[in-house]
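Write out the 3D structure for:
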Amino acid sequence: MEIQQIQWLWLILPIAVLFLAWYLIYRGQWASFRKYFGDRNIHRLLPGFTVYNKYLKMLFLLLGMSFLLLALANPRVGLEKQEVETESVNVLLAVDLSYSMTVEDRSPNRLEIAKQRAIELIDLLPGNSFAFFPFAGVTECNTPITIDREAVKTGVRSASAGMLPVQGTSFANLLEVTGSYLEELGSGVLVVISDGETHDTQYENALDHFVVNNYPIFSVAIGTEEGAGISHTVSGRKELRRDINGNLIISRMELEHLNRFSNSTGGGLLVNPSHSSIQDLATQINRLREEGIAQGSFTVYRDYYPYLLGASLLFLVLYGLWPLMRSIEKKRNLK
């Protein structure tokens, strides 16, 4: 079983705290009320009233809200995997936007080359669907899957180093986010354009997901192994970044992780590719389309939210009708 929207479950805690606070306050008020009037006078003042009915009514409200949150979270069970055959390819473009991509060991810099190659690949793959995922310390879906190539190219052109809230390069987060996205689509390929430099190597589980589901990863490495300094602007002047000891920070292209992604998933690795190399990459991806092979699989789920939503509505209706039901019961007792 998995929880599709687990963030909703966090709301259960504040709701439980509010209900506990209400219970403690109400119990204290009721105890003071009994002490002041006495049990005999209370029955005369409030004929047929019992504190347990009040508790029961609030319990209906608590259960109704809890089941509603569970329905929004949507627990589900995977029943089976089905292979997907497709005549087009879902291409996820992931471009590294960490500050190391601003290094100018490739002219004008690594990022501009990466964006140029990404746009070339989009132009060479008409008829396919694209999504754009800029990544650094986190990965975001900038452009959801679409056949509108101009929209994807606009997203690529507008990308800049530092635009994401967390810097660094997390391949683990990249593979987790794009792997989940491909699972929703059912099939596709991931094209990663990066200098390969990272300190995050805990991506084994995420990479296994690509291997098991047959999602190829094509890696495009940009940069040089000699590397260069990372520039940034200070008071209008361009300076090179230094560590806390004042040493110049040198960023180098690293092929280890990018090569591992490609070899493990049956994709390919391109190092500082020319336009003709991008054409070859487009040919490889188009071959998947022409052969119409099953590129992946998707899981058929059994969702439980309809049952949870039904339970929520039942308890909320009981909460709303409880005073009316108690009123009808009192009239019957008087007769």
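Residues 305-334 form the longest helix (30 residues).
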